[in-house]
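Task card 7
Instruction: Convert sequence to structure tokens.
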Amino acid sequence: MARRDHIDIDAPFGAAGSVSLPGSKSISNRLLLLAALADGVTEIRNLLESEDTTYMLEALAKLGVVTEHVEGTTQYTVSGCNGQFPVEDAVLFLGNAGTAIRPLTAVLALGAGNYRLSGQPRMHQRPIGDLVDALRSLGSDIRYQKVDGYPPLEILPGSIDVRGPVRVRGDVSSQFLTALLIALPLTGKRAVIAVDGELVSKPYVEITLNLMQRFGVNVQRQGWAQFELPAGCRYRSPGNISVEGDASGASYFLAAGAIGGGPVRVHGVGKDSIQGDIRFADALATLGARVEVGDQFIEARAPSQGRLKAFDLDLNQIPDAAMTLAVVALFCDGPSKLRNIANWRVKETDRLAAMATELRKLGASVEEGQDYLRITPPQAPNFAESASMESATAASTTVASTQIVAIDTYDDHRIAMSFALAALGGKPVRINDPDCVAKTFPDFFDRLARIISAPVIAIDGPSGAGKGTVAVKVAQRLGFHYLDSGALYRLVGLYALRNGIDVETDKHLGTLVRALAIEFRDGEIYLARERVTDLIRTEAVAEKASQIAKLPEVRQALMSLQRAFRRAPGLVADGRDMATVVFADATLKVYLDASVEARAGRRYKQLIDKGLDANLATLLRDLRQRDARDSNRSVAPLQKSLDAQVLDTTNLTVDEGVDKVVRWFNKARLEAPPF
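Output:
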């Protein structure tokens, strides 16, 4: 499928819900390589399915490693080659997967084959010279094919000698150390790695050491400066192993909960995680977010009062999740500083420069240093302060794209995912090249859509004003879902009549209502997949619906059902108390009215057009009586929400009424407060 040019994320009302995380990229690619090098067969569950893992799987296949995928699952079986790849001459393309090219370079350089490794253009700009220098010091024969210090590489058989310590710089990328750690057990001899300088991203090295231990290799270390691998160690399959949920990926959803109200819970990672990026939850707590960590979940929600607190944090240990904090800084109560993040510059792009550029587009003042960002947010409220704030909302193509802040992603998955959160500030954002997220999180935007509340247009008004007709057409115009709340009561009435339920005495009616399978589709209404559009319009059903509407337990059950219709890209809901009770937080509320004479005339025409007898005077009298009853009902009386827009359709056509509602909606979208 072709990559999309962009995706527009319109400002949701907030964020709440739960997300099951895909497998960790860092763990997935390490496990694939360790399983391939091990003695025995390894079953890997919850393996991340992404571009980076695909490149690793393809490379292993070219090297003669047999892998099997259980179709329809994330389970893979890897038949290990006991430290020696069957194929000793191969050309490997590894995209922009640093977790693939760096450890494979080390493993292949200690072997006896002839290999050529390359990747995407950005990979050829990412340094690998420190790793190559370390491997050459052991006797490896590695040659640069274009620019010294960078891929592509050619690897030829060398003469390996591990008697002296191998030295590697630690201040550029922890992946160089990880690569050496994974590769050196293949020599079967004692080996020592000495790290020069301060080691960055230590938690990623901890992942490597933990997984190596699962495969039977225990590494002794002296702080973070020296690592010793014992003689005679080799990899043995643990049999079955499961990949944790991706803690870096969790950061986006946890941040959404902290910014957008929450709670948002991520499943698949918890307090016993081996991933350092779970420390992102600690960072959010430092900012004042309410965070809960369980065995297999983490949950975040906004502060109980006020905005998130400004911060000054050393983020060297969580460089990937730190990018999420850079966007979170937009929602804090003052300037924030992200320190010790120089290694951002050698990732998928120069992330320091890219983040500074895109944050400024959103109105932030940004100071970019060699290893830090200082971010001063725009001066305006956020969701943590006012849950009633109107938000920009989704899907109308009539809004000029110039009104949307366009975020460039630099073919960097983490920039795309981080800036998706910016829409929670009340303005729509456009994420250019959104499918770059396929590198680690292919369905990120789908999962995000499940937790951000979709916009709602609530339309109410007296009988015969045309609210149903207008609502349907507005929904069609915007591509939104549609809810006819009055039809819900009629559907319950139909169900009660068919099943002989006494609505006055049945104590289980509320439970039954929650279980009803109701669908509005293509202008038709379905109950348990049966088309019942015409059946619910009978007088008997209407009478039963009127009885049901007075029952508190049914109204409560239907409220849950009505709110369940709120899903991306948005909802148009018409009917009694939609704007005042069910969707009191609706993005746009419309009270659609018309003179009683106009309403009676429309009803008269409808009946005549259907070939039915009608009397205009009788209809006029009935509507006046209905208005009086509706306005004086003890339960859900007809009333205009105080913040509703009044639309008098007496002298308007249906299309003119629809046009006006859509204009109001677009205006609300563009005039929503910034961050």
